[in-house]
Write a structure and sequence with these properties.
Layout lengths: L24 E7 L8 E8 L7 H12 L1 H4 L8 H13 L5 H16 L18 E5 L3 E3 L1 H4 L4 E2 H10 L7 H11 L4
Helix pairs in contact: 3-4, 4-7
Length: 185
């Protein structure tokens, strides 16, 4: 993914070229885009981040990045929003809890795409949500009994929808939101 497009390039190499891993930021040149042969990557340079050697942070990063492939499947032209979202997340990754960054990035993505369902009505039964809330995929609100899911305080979740920050959420609530994000975009 670049700032403006999702492209497929080919690089024939062995195990010695480990910089082409999922989620790495690389600078590259393209050879062969004139249509005569498959376009190939040349002059690869890895641009690292301080958290790359922290196995737990790297695993969460890979899980987050993997959700973009099915979401952007068959997309060629791309707005810079997605690239900027990932780059900003990567820059903050070593300073904050990565699960909080994932949740905040995901709600920014939902807002940008116009898919954030921020009404205070249950997505299933369409009745007003009072004290407790449960969330479905894409952070769609529901009553806990409607989807047989654990409950969260609705005020905190609606504040999260409004401010798009996890600062007032407890770690267990962020873990709950993170698991919803990991179900897919």
């Amino acid at each position: 993914m670049t700032a403006t497009e999702v492209r497929t390039y080919y690089r024939f190499f062995g195990a010695r070229h480990s910089i082409l891993q999922l989620g790495n930021l690389v600078d590259f040149e393209v050879e062969g885009e004139d249509g005569r042969f498959m376009p190939r990557l040349r002059s690869l340079s890895h641009m690292g981040f301080p958290w790359l050697y922290d196995r737990n942070r790297l695993l969460i990063w890979h899980n987050f990045i993997k959700k973009f492939e099915p979401h952007l499947h068959d997309t060629e032209a791309l707005d810079s929003f997605y690239y900027d979202l990932l780059l900003n997340a990567a820059k903050k990754w070593h300073k904050q809890n990565p699960k909080r960054i994932v949740c905040e990035s995901y709600i920014h993505l939902l807002t940008y795409e116009g898919r954030l369902y921020d009404e205070e009505n249950c997505f299933i039964c369409e009745q007003r949500i009072e004290e407790d809330i449960a969330l479905m995929q894409a952070f769609k609100p529901a009553h806990p009994q409607c989807i047989y899911s654990p409950a969260l305080p609705s005020k905190k979740i609606f504040d999260f929808f409004t401010h798009q920050k996890t600062v007032f959420l407890e770690d267990n609530e962020v873990d709950y939101l993170y698991e919803i994000v990991m179900k897919g975009f």
